[in-house]
Amino acid sequence: MSKKNNSDKLTVFALGGVGEIGKNMYVVQYANDIVVVDSGLKFPEEDMLGIDIVIPDISYLTENRDKVRGILLTHGHEDHIGGLPYVLKHLNVPVYGTKLTLGLVENKLKEANLLGETKRILIDEDSEVVLGSTLKASFFRTNHSIPDSVGICIATPEGNVVHTGDFKFDHTPVNGQYANLQRMAAIGEEGVLVLMSDSTNAEKPGFTPSEKNVGVVLEDIFRKAAQRVVIATFASNVHRIQQVVNAAESTGRKITVIGRSMVNVVAIASDLGYLNVPDGMLIEPEEVNKMAADRVVVLCTGSQGEPMSALTRMARSTHRKVDILPGDTVIIAATPVPGNEKYVGRTIDELFRLGADVIYSGANSGIHVSGHGSQEELKLMLNLMKPKFFLPIHGEYRMQRRHALLAEAVGVDPDNIFITDIGEIVEVQGGAARRAGKVTAGNVLIDGLGVGDVGNIVLRDRKLLSQDGILVVVVTLSKQDGTIMSGPDIISRGFVYVRESEGLLDEANRIVSSTLLKLMSENVNEWASLKTGVKDALGRFLYEQTRRRPMILPIIMEV
Amino acid sequence: MSKKNNSDKLTVFALGGVGEIGKNMYVVQYANDIVVVDSGLKFPEEDMLGIDIVIPDISYLTENRDKVRGILLTHGHEDHIGGLPYVLKHLNVPVYGTKLTLGLVENKLKEANLLGETKRILIDEDSEVVLGSTLKASFFRTNHSIPDSVGICIATPEGNVVHTGDFKFDHTPVNGQYANLQRMAAIGEEGVLVLMSDSTNAEKPGFTPSEKNVGVVLEDIFRKAAQRVVIATFASNVHRIQQVVNAAESTGRKITVIGRSMVNVVAIASDLGYLNVPDGMLIEPEEVNKMAADRVVVLCTGSQGEPMSALTRMARSTHRKVDILPGDTVIIAATPVPGNEKYVGRTIDELFRLGADVIYSGANSGIHVSGHGSQEELKLMLNLMKPKFFLPIHGEYRMQRRHALLAEAVGVDPDNIFITDIGEIVEVQGGAARRAGKVTAGNVLIDGLGVGDVGNIVLRDRKLLSQDGILVVVVTLSKQDGTIMSGPDIISRGFVYVRESEGLLDEANRIVSSTLLKLMSENVNEWASLKTGVKDALGRFLYEQTRRRPMILPIIMEV
């Protein structure tokens, strides 16, 4: 291990996950050894029209594929593992993860037909992983909103690089798996050269409450509910699901599980021993209507108001198997992710309209806690690790910035704190760190089966089309004498109701004809000029009449 | 007054503002007298692509135009007066409002060329307005985030109908204008048949803090700021603006005002005496750079992260007159309206990147308070008015529902509480109230100059176009022998990058040709069938290849 060469150096950078929440992917490189931490996806921003998901640009990794020693996973959330099926297609390297994490990954790889060809290596807190000739990784248990989360310590010839993964400090964990404070303290004692730490809740003062608090509230709600309890939460929150099971058990209710990802996670987590469901506790959705209402819990997806999710369908009375009945108690055990507030609000309204009693977050309802540590926990991590250099990661810029201030407050030298953007390299050599340029980094947009075939021009067109629609103008000209043989015909999509706008479209027709005839009488005959002429004249007319700018597509034929 | 006829009855309903936040418009009718309260607009939902604003469907009013006695305005916010320019075009009736409200309305009507033909009648708290032969309105002062807000009591032969407008109880109002508790108590004492009350904050426990609290915080920030202070807030919040002026004065700073609506409101409110700005306090934006940084306040629009607003431009360094400099203090004195969280977050990130210190809401920053009363204030209003019948208005369904529970809690008979949707009539006769059907109600969408010419089909097309774009397929067939004379040519917009998808489009071309030739060989010659054939075959192929469903527009010509 640790063959140190004077010209070798350590570089650390993010390909995703800084300046954003999502598509986490971090790179640690020493000499010819590259280690990747996580490989996540992000859901599209509102201006990425029609896009399904977004993954990081991994050009740097594919260009250096012979150096990539593996992908280490911190935990099984989509923003940390969701990019794997795309990344592994181009980069066949071993994947390291804890049992539950690999369980979730395997499910994904199976769907993508990549399971056979991917080397998966199970790690636990006591594993040591040798990565190339210079790097070695070890792990420490953390608390998060999914079991089996770990932080990673990568030993390099320059010193230790610690990546916290996503974490909180839950002093009363649901599964009895405490964050390993002793291990973290020992790493700090040994010395941390670079710390990369989760900034998600850097804006939140205080301490994030224990997941166990939610269990107490749930049991109370279950007990008081006169009829069925319907509860939606994040499918991956196995701790929460365990508490739903516990509350159901202690209040004599059976559970039916609805929604693809919820069914998946319950199956995988039960199989692997992360979820303890008493025999006979689970019932099929079809059995719900045969049971007394106060003996039933419906556990489902849809806590973000996602249009196709189980809860949304129930709220709209379009679910095939379960209806919401007056008097049912519906719990939405989640906080809306920014951007989803309106969807969640609409679901709540629809549930109330059906006569349900809806319990949702806000006003200290106690039915949700975050999986990320607040300011006091971030400071605790900083003081356990006592890093020389610090990179706040996993957050929007404002969160990174707050996290940097926290690090300053606990004594990290401000000159040793690096708020980076994706691709920005921090280089460490001889105990000194500096910014050292950029590698290629960015968003790769996935639309259907297409990876990266939708870019700015396509998005700009979708944006234009979405605002004012399109007019296709079809005209046939005579080759001989430059008269109009047929048309112009104007076809409108997404612009105006044709029936109510006949006058406008008739006038548009006349303008196209007269523009063409005028241009041709001036001996303008190149199609490009004729098309531009039609576009300009028609665009001007429509803007004057409607203040809209539909896309105009002239199709001029010659016979 | 009060000619009572046994068959006459009172009806109350909303044309906008229930089941939604926005486009407030309420109707009170007795016999042949109709009174409208407010005439607001709403900003489009995220599925209303390309739409600028939304107003209520006023068919009921235009069909009964001879009975409409006037529009009473509670205050000058857009969701209460923004629909007037559209409504008055179709319904020329008198408009009643307080001084500031009418000042803001006049500005709007001037822009719409409606000022001359609109009768505007100034009211104050002591006005009594006779409306037709059966109705009479009086007013009571309330507190809200704009001065000169009033509630309205409409005396009818059946009894008093009270509309609170938007309100909070601010016991230390910035302008010294207290909510008139005595007047409200007297109305309650006289007897309230129907109360319609603001549900915006019905989910919030406790009491909304006084606007004055914000002033204390602002002065403290202004004093400590080493360089310029930039503050964005709602332009209509004249109280907030007054406190910015006060804080600037006491800390020796001058103010420049940026953003069209902010400039407008400052001018109108100053002219009408609602804003007290010391002489020489205001400076032009051009002077900012000549002044010492710690002598300047920039008061601007953009507190919602609106893309074209002053603060957003400054954050992106694209504002013509003011740059954000490192060390500037930027205050965003507002809470993001649901749906705007991401925009606001992005603005904050950009400001931090420029080196500014950004102070924004959350974590008890104290820089914003709501203009709407919380649960304790809603109960106070209910107990002041002691209504027989209660309609929670001005809110999404879940807020109306919470408000109904509050009313029950203070003793309103649950059978006398009506949560209504837009258009749903509550009828009162002989002291008994009941639901009595619906009038036409809905959204009228305004896109550019078009009012109501964009409906579901156009929106559906825009949605489709925004998701996967459009392919236009042009083919010329021979009349004689059914061969393809030219094409197929495929033009793609918003689907894929043409250059990177040549293979796909070539194959698409072949599929169109073979489909057409096959159909024609089977003697299918009607254009409609040929077009459907092309659409189906091409659509199927593209979905298989890309999992996308672009709109396909076949254009088949015959020569």
TrEMBL record, chains A, B:
Annotated InterPro entries: Metallo-B-lactamas, RibonucZ/Hydroxyglut_hydro, RMMBL, RNase_J, RNase_J_2, RNase_J_b_CASP, RNase_J_bac, RNase_J_C
Main location: cytoplasm
Metallo-beta-lactamase domain sequence ranges: 22-218
A cellular-component GO term for this protein: cytoplasm
Keywords on record: Calcium, Cytoplasm, Endonuclease, Exonuclease, Hydrolase, Metal-binding, Nuclease, RNA-binding, rRNA processing, Zinc
Binding-site residues for substrate, renumbered to this chain: A235, S236, N237, H368, V369, S370, G371, H372
Binding note for cofactor: Binds 2 Zn(2+) ions per subunit. It is not clear if Zn(2+) or Mg(2+) is physiologically important.
Subunit comment: Homodimer, may be a subunit of the RNA degradosome.
Function: Counteracts the endogenous Pycsar antiviral defense system. Phosphodiesterase that enables metal-dependent hydrolysis of host cyclic nucleotide Pycsar defense signals such as cCMP and cUMP.
Protein name as it appears in the record: Ribonuclease J
Origin species: Paenibacillus pini JCM 16418
Protein's gene: rnj
